[in-house]
Amino acid sequence: MNSDPLSQQAGDAVIPVSALNRAIGSVLERSFPLVWVSGEVSNFTRAASGHWYFSIKDAQAQMRCVMFRGRAQYAEFTPREGDKIEVRALVTMYEPRGELQLNVEAVRRTGQGRLFEAFLRLKAQLESEGLFAAERKRALPAHPRAIGIVTSLQAAAFRDVLTTLCRRAPHIPVIVYPAPVQGAGVSAKLAAMVEAASARREVDVLIVCRGGGSIEDLWAFNEEVLARAIAESAVPVVSGVGHETDFTIADFAADVRAPTPTAAAELVSPQRVMLLRDLDHRHATLARGFGRMMERRAQQLDWLARRLVSPAERLQRQRTHLRQLATRLASAGARPVRDARGRFALVQLRWQRWRPDLNAEREHLMRVAQRLQASQARRHERASARVSELAARLQVLSPRRTLERGYAALIDAQTGRAVRTPGALRPKRPLTVHLAEGTADVLLADVQPRLTDEF
């Protein structure tokens, strides 16, 4: 199915201009994807709304461009008349006037894309070789004896660095290794100065710096020769190139990257005022410690002087001490014997006091034995009388006495219970008959119950 608006018009049908322009715009947007277009800027206008309107041209043609505010606010620079730029745009139709235009999404200076790609390739290559490894980074000296600067003598960054060093550390000498920072063959000259500073060993730290600029202006610091010279330097290198947002290969190769040249000067220079303040504090602390040590030594000397005595006095003290030890030894030898005798006398007295009277105990034991025999005899007599009485009663109540008078006891052989009523008798049911002189098993042939009150 064809979706082209023009194909939907049949034969000689008439269509409005707006429909025609809309159809042309639709065809253009489908036919031309986003492309990079290069040219020279002309007729640049920034509208009050924030949109950019300009044209790009070359020797043979030109094209109108629009960059809306939502895209323009993220552009890294504002194009000026005559600038060589590259725009990433979509070919569209401005329907009200029927004009072709480029709807710009991104803008960059001519050649910047190729330079950035070269930057990324070199960065990846050197990083794979370990040139940017963190373990090879060296710490900056806390108190450098001399500071070196590699930059142009005419650069504004050079004046900023010198001003900062004079303000913070005027006592540290500064050695300048001049080299141009922009132009053809600059990176080799910068690398030569870095190598010269490394070979002379007359500085403890080296600053490689220049002011801000475009990627073309800073390209000398993206060359491999300078990066390798910085990495192989015998002294720590601080890179202070461009502004805070600018990154170069030299920044990655250096031991420390500073956001600006002024910040690089602050990193390598200890502040003289703070050093003097710290020195005063340490001097006061040392003086107080020395004074306290002298006081302790004087006190220890006085104590040792008091302990120092003559040999004769020392011998006399030892004789006195020896006599005291002899007296204590004699007293200590006699005291255990005296204490033992006292404890023995006390135990003997307590034993005599608590010694039992055997005769009295024997008489008491005999009396207790007689009382026990009399008590057992009386208990035996009472128990015998009780047994006789219970035996007589048992004879009277014994079932055998009842059986001897002619009675019999019937026991159901199946249940083991006594038969008490005629209704409990059943024909052919075994019974056990208990008599006075034995038992007999019987089997009833017939039962004729009869109730009587004869007994």
Automatic annotation (TrEMBL):
Q: Which UniProt keywords apply?
A: Cytoplasm, Exonuclease, Hydrolase, Nuclease
* Annotated EC: 3.1.11.6
Any one GO CC term of this protein is: cytoplasm
The reply on keyword S-adenosyl-L-methionine is no
Describe the location of the Exonuclease VII large subunit C-terminal domain by residue ranges: 131-441
Q: Which GO terms describe its biological process?
A: DNA catabolic process
Q: Which reaction does it catalyse?
A: Exonucleolytic cleavage in either 5'- to 3'- or 3'- to 5'-direction to yield nucleoside 5'-phosphates
Where do the OB-fold nucleic acid binding domain residues begin and end?
Answer: 16-107
Report which superkingdom the organism of origin falls in: Bacteria
- Identify a single GO molecular function assigned to this protein: exodeoxyribonuclease VII activity
Stored HAMAP family: Exonuc_7_L
* Family recorded in the similarity comment: Belongs to the XseA family.
- Please report the name of this protein according to its UniProt entry: Exodeoxyribonuclease 7 large subunit
